[in-house]
Structure formats: C-alpha cells, structure tokens
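Chapter summary example.
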Amino acid sequence: MGIILKSSVRVTLAILLLFLGGCATPVSNTGYVLALDSNADKAYTGNRCDEAIAMYTDLAKELPKNTKSLLRIGNCHARNLRQDDAIVAYKEALARDPYYNKAWYNLGLIQAQILAQTMAEMGSYIDPTDDSMDSMRTLSQKVLDAFSITIRSEAQQSVGAPQGLPAVTNKVTAKELKNDKPASND
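The structure predicted for these 186 residues follows.
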C-alpha cells in the first residue's frame, strides 16, 4: 500500500508541476525534479542528512512554493544539532506558507529547547541564597521539567562541554520532529 501511495504522490506532484506550476518548471525539467525528490527522500530516510540537504535545497529552488523540502532541511539541521540553521529553514518554509503547522511545531520545539538549555545554564549560576531570584528559579525549573533536562555536576559533564557550563543535552530526536507525513494531530 505504501508503494502505491508513494507512486500516487509522485504522479500528483508531476501533474502539479505541469499544470499548477505556472510554467515555472518546464515539462522537460519534470523528470529531473521527480528524480531529485525521490533521491532526496531516500537520503533523508537513510539519515544521510548532508546529501538530503543538498538535494532538498535544489528542490526548494526549483519549486518556489515547495515547503516539504525546507521542513526536511530544518529537520536534518536539527538532527545534526545545527539549531540556528534549522530555525532558518523552518522560517523559510513559513515564509512560503504561514499556515504550515509542521514547520510551526518544529520551530517552536527547537526554540523551546534552546530556552531550556539557557535556563539550565542560568540555573547553575544563580546564587541559591539570593531570594530575589526565587521567581527565576521557579521559571527555570518549570522549563527544565518540561524537557526533562537536569543540570549535571562538573564531574558528570560530557566530553567537549565548555568548562564551567552545565552539560545539557539538547539533541532533537527524529521522533519529536514533524516531517511531511500526514499525522493525526495535524
């Protein structure tokens, strides 16, 4: 059934390219775009993100209204812990379609995780005896609890973490990110 669905999606894409593309994509270019889309999807599902990014970037240029490519570019950057690049890709997808809920979700997730990382770092520096920071400590803990992030002692810091900063893992898992597949909560 999945093969039939993929074929149906590709045929639909070809028809859209031919009839709704506003002549932006010449008919002779359709085969190239379909092959590029297929190869990019294979690289993406195979976790070969650098390859996928290159191909999805070409697709995004070929199809100016395409948002799936930008979403997946963002997802690949997020998987590779390049949060700033992921944010740029999600925002570009939203510039093309401000109603693209998967891009909004992923953008919010990345930005919330950055906030959690900031709060964890801040929490390690706040003087525990300073009563004026009680509300900030409470807010920090709420943010950290939402992501199950803990501040580790220096002895537990991961290799490569800057000295003096808490070791906070902020890796986005593929399961957390929305991709182009239909989901029940979309």
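To summarize the output: The longest helix spans residues 101-123.
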